[in-house]
Specification:
2 domains; 8-stranded antiparallel beta barrel; 15 strands; 3 helices; 262 residues; disordered N terminus; Lipocalin; mainly beta; 4-stranded mixed sheet; Jelly Rolls
Length: 262
């Protein structure tokens, strides 16, 4: 029997409706604000669902940078064919991928019709400020960057012990807990102390092989910030020493956590 996660995908676009039923244990109930961010790992053979309450006339906003399939079910268990909520009740988002396993981040929001016009203008102004350079990194105000780098250099660089950090990430397995409470175990496959002219490129770098087959790269920098790359997507966070067990920990900006060693 061929594993559905590893089979060749003959379909390059998402189908009109899910190919698999959604298991009850795979549904997470969420309380939506103007914008709620959920993240996880979804398989072609096992979908994920998010259930929320919405009112008639609201607009459902969905945004993800990853190549995933998304469907929305109404309270009557029919697929929603547009973004406008037809009636009050419980709505269900089903997330899948066409092939294998995919790490994703999904922004979900609810917006009242009277606010759509004004918020569209606001988002256009904000997008002008968040320009992206050719390497995909966000360009912030140069004065802010200089201030932060000087602060890190003055306060933290003298206390950064690269050898201690290197030993800290190599003292056992790596334990990952997602924002949703999913747990994964990984192993460091290679690591190095990296010295570069740029602060953003220097620190202790490592590759982690996870028990679900995903491989990620991590860079722990001198300013106690962290950069993580997984399937071409970059995430950010910060690292610290747990004073209770003297283990190195990472807290990602979106809520997930890493612990190096037991």
């Amino acid at each position: 029997m061929q594993d559905p996660d590893s089979s060749d995908a003959t379909q390059s676009t998402c189908p009109d409706q899910p190919l698999l039923p959604l298991k009850e244990k795979a549904i997470e109930k969420i309380l939506l604000t103007e914008e709620t961010i959920v993240s996880g790992r979804v398989r072609a053979s096992e979908n994920i669902g998010y259930q929320f309450q919405a009112k008639e006339g609201q607009k459902i906003l969905l945004k993800s940078k990853q190549d995933i399939c998304i469907w929305v079910y109404t309270p009557k268990s029919t697929l929603l064919d547009n973004s406008i909520v037809p009636e009050d009740g419980s709505y269900l988002i089903q997330v899948s991928t066409l092939k294998g396993v995919k790490t994703f981040e999904l922004k979900i929001g609810l917006e009242s019709l009277e606010n759509i016009s004004s918020k569209t203008k606001k988002s256009e102004k904000e997008s002008d400020l968040n320009k992206i350079n050719s390497s995909g990194e966000e360009i912030s105000d140069s004065n802010d960057n200089n201030t932060k780098e000087e602060q890190y250099s003055d306060n933290n660089q003298s206390t950064f012990d690269a050898k201690a950090v290197y030993n800290g990430i190599n003292q056992g397995d790596v334990f990952f807990t997602s924002k949703n409470g999913d747990n994964f175990v990984g192993k460091i496959t290679k690591s190095e102390i990296r010295e570069r002219q740029s602060l953003k490129e220097s620190g202790v770098a490592a590759s982690i092989s996870w028990n679900d087959g995903v491989v990620s790269s991590i860079l722990l920098m001198e300013d106690f910030k962290v950069r993580v790359w997984e399937e071409g997507i970059e995430y950010s966070g910060s690292w610290y020493w747990n004073t209770e067990n003297n283990l190195l920990n990472v807290r990602m900006d979106k809520g997930s956590k890493y612990q190096f060693g037991k």
